[in-house]
Design brief:
It is a single chain. By secondary structure, this protein is mostly beta strands. The chain has one helix at 16-28, and strands spanning 31-37, 43-53, 56-64, 69-82, 85-98.
Length: 109
């Protein structure tokens, strides 16, 4: 059980549809969250979720709000077996945004 705390409020949910959706959320929840404390007393936040099992794929989000940095991305690992060896490769995309750039000139660039 990855997140048993998601079950705690369910006995109080009266609507059966909402309760069902909450159970599904618990069942499907494969998320990882963390944060970093930086030397300047700000934080960076990271959230990732396995969004597909077959093929495996993870999506992630990172943000350091006080520094105006945001990264959105997805990773898709795959393996190759080559006779006596195996290799693991990562495919994916990452979009890095500097949120404060371009604000005075009509938006993000």
């Amino acid at each position: 059980m990855a997140h048993p705390e998601l079950l705690l409020p369910l006995p109080e949910v009266q609507d059966p549809v909402e309760r069902f959706l909450s159970v599904v959320k618990f069942y499907l929840s494969e998320t990882f969250t963390c944060y970093w404390d930086f030397p300047d007393h700000t934080r960076g936040y990271y959230i990732s979720e396995q969004t597909s099992h077959h093929p495996p794929k993870s999506s992630y989000f990172y943000m350091a709000p006080e520094h105006g940095i945001r990264i959105d991305g997805a990773l898709k690992p795959h393996s190759k077996f080559l006779g006596n060896s195996a290799a693991s490769m990562m495919e994916g995309v990452a979009i890095l945004r500097f949120m404060d750039i371009g604000k005075t000139r009509g938006g993000e660039k």
